Amino acid sequence: MLEAFSVTTTRKSLLPLIERIEAEPYRFMITKHGNPVAVVMSYEEYSRMTETLRLLQDKEMTNRIRKGLIDIDHGDTMALGDKGNE
C-alpha cells in the first residue's frame, strides 16, 4: 500500500521525500481533500514501468513470449550454442 500525504504535507516535505525516492525504492501518493490525485516515484521506476506497458501492448511480442513459455514448459529448448544448427 502506498503511503499517502496531503498536498499541504507534500509541499512542506517535498525535498526529504525526493531524497528518500533517490535513496531507496519508494513511492508515495498525494491526496487532495482525502482523494488520491497523484503518485510520485523515481524517474527510473517510471521509465521501467512505461517500457513494460509498451511491450505488453505489442501483441506480436506477447504472443512470442507466450509461445516461448509454452516451449519451455514442454522442454522444447536448445543450448545457446545450438542456435545455428536448427
Gross morphology: elongated
The SSE order reads EHEEHH
Beta-strand portion reads 15-25%
CATH topology of the largest domain: YefM-like fold
Alpha-beta classification = alpha+beta
Number of domains: 2
Can you offer a commentary on this structure?
The protein has 86 residues and is α+β, with helices and mostly antiparallel strands. It has 2 domains: 1-41, YefM-like fold; 42-76, no CATH class. 55% of the residues lie in helices and 17% in strands. The chain has helices at residues 7-23, 43-57, 59-73, and strands at 3-6, 28-32, 35-40. The longest helix is centred in the first third of the chain and has 17 residues, at 7-23. The radius of gyration is 21 Å and the shape is elongated.
SSE layout and pairing:
Layout: E1 3-6, H1 7-23, E2 28-32, E3 35-40, H2 43-57, H3 59-73
Relevant terms:
elongated; 3 helices; 2 domains; single chain; YefM-like fold; alpha+beta; 86 residues; three-stranded mixed β-sheet
In short:
By secondary structure, this protein is α+β, with helices and mostly antiparallel strands. The protein has helices spanning 7-23, 43-57, 59-73; strands at 3-6, 28-32, 35-40. A 3-stranded mixed beta sheet has the order 1-2-3.
